[in-house]
Every structure is written in C-alpha cells, then in structure tokens.
Design a protein that fits this description.
Length: about 250
C-alpha cells in the first residue's frame, strides 16, 4: 500500500491494488482547495483499466455536501474510462445520505463496507453497460450530427423508445455549447439497464443554469425542456470545463 499526503490541504489518499481492483482510502478534510487532488487520484486509478475502483471515504470530512460532486467530475473527465465502475464505501449513515443528496449516487453506488462493495462487483460486471462518444466541431453541423449519432447508438443498443427524448436533450446541450462557449462539444451516451445518460462536455467552466421561469406564459427555454423530459439533469465542473448531463428512462416520453 502506498499513501500520498497532500500538504497543506490536510488530505491523504492511500492506494492499493488487489487482483484487478484498485482501492483508494481518503482521509482528511475535503474542500475547494484539495478537491482537484482527490479527483486526480480517482482518475489516475482508472488509467490502466482496472475492473473497478473502490474509494473508501469513511475517514473523509466533507463540510459542504456539494464537494461530493468531485467524484462525478472524475467520472466525466474526457480521458477517464467510463466502462470502469467507481464504487464508494462510507461507514457513516449521515455521510451516505449526504452523498445521495448531492446526486453523486446517481453515477456510482455507495456501500457501508468494503466487503459489500467487493461482493457487488460480479453483478456490476454483468450489467450490460454501453457507452459511446464523439468529439464534434464547433459549428452548426454538429447539431445534426449529434442527433444522428445518438439515434444510431440507441438503435444499435435496442433502445428505440429512448430515441425521441434523447434527440431533444442532445440538441439542447449541443446548441448551448455552440451558442455560449464556442468550444468543440464532446457528446457522450451511456446506457445502463433501462436508462440512458446523455452528456455533452465543453471547454467553459461557467455552469449551465436554467433561467428563472417567466411570471406568465410557458417556459420554453432549452434547459426547462430538459428538466421536464428527464429523471435528473445537472452541470458538473471538470478539469477542462464542464459536463452537462441528463438521465432519461422509458417513462420519459414526448
């Protein structure tokens, strides 16, 4: 086992590998000053494509629930491996509830013990996870191309019922990237069981924010439509900008 202490941030991460699983154990206080270090530790653990990365956060103090999103940030980094599952271990019930409130549990399961996390690996290996991605240019042709790609991917994965909503969502996300950031959109699609996650990354650190609804009339802004059509959506900062994502299921229909 090797431990890396991050001074003066009061954060330490111990790393060990058993068979094909990488285990991280973080302790200290997680805050804005050291969150990038923890994110990078998780990303580095995924480089060699292990069968899973298990992160024990039982000894981690997190004063602000929003700081848990650093694990989602690691998940959405363009250079990580989406097929490698990240599992969190947290012995404290209150902290597990905080992780769930932060939305992090939408993207990675949380277990009370390392033993229970290890026991779940067989089931995760059989889950039929699918993913695809494409880097598109910063011009209007990417609107049509992103829709074509999403339609093709979902058709190949036998998910035709998800196509109509997925096309609306990816169009909103790519249009926002082109209009507000001018960067090249990275389009990603993931399927896990009955749900699909549509995600678009860009080079701007400004979060995607839904504008307040008008006092009268119908709110037809792009993100308002995404909010109405998805189980959940969000904007997660990454090292190179941000990723805007939405999770849809068979109940989300036009």
């Amino acid at each position: 086992m090797s431990a890396v202490a991050k001074s003066p941030s009061s954060l330490a991460v111990a790393v060990r590998t058993e068979q094909s699983v990488v285990f991280l154990a973080a302790e200290g206080v997680l805050d804005a000053n050291n969150s990038a270090e923890l994110r990078d530790s998780v990303m580095n653990a995924m480089v060699d494509a292990p069968s899973a990365v298990i992160v024990d956060v039982t000894a981690l103090q997190v004063p602000d629930d929003a700081a848990w999103s650093i694990f989602v940030s690691a998940r959405w980094q363009a250079d990580t491996r989406p097929e490698v599952p990240i599992l969190l271990v947290c012995g404290g019930r209150a902290a597990r509830e905080a992780i769930t409130r932060s939305g992090t549990a939408r993207f990675m399961p949380v277990y009370a013990t390392e033993k229970s996390a290890i026991k779940s690996l067989g089931k995760l290996a059989r889950r039929g996870f699918r993913h695809a991605q494409a880097q598109l240019p910063a011009n209007l042709t990417s609107l049509r191309e992103s829709r074509q790609l999403v339609r093709e991917w979902l058709t190949n994965w036998s998910k035709p019922r998800l196509i109509p909503v997925a096309l609306v969502v990816v169009n909103v996300f790519v249009e926002n990237v082109l209009e507000h950031t001018g960067s090249d959109p990275l389009v990603r699609l993931e399927c896990d069981g009955p749900t699909a996650t549509i995600a678009v990354s860009d080079g701007s650190g400004a979060p995607a924010v839904r504008l307040p609804s008008p006092p009268k009339g119908i709110d037809v802004s792009g993100l308002a439509i995404v909010d109405a059509l998805s189980r959940a959506w969000g904007s997660t900062p990454t090292a190179s900008g941000k990723t805007v994502w939405a999770i849809i299921g068979p109940e989300n229909q036009l």
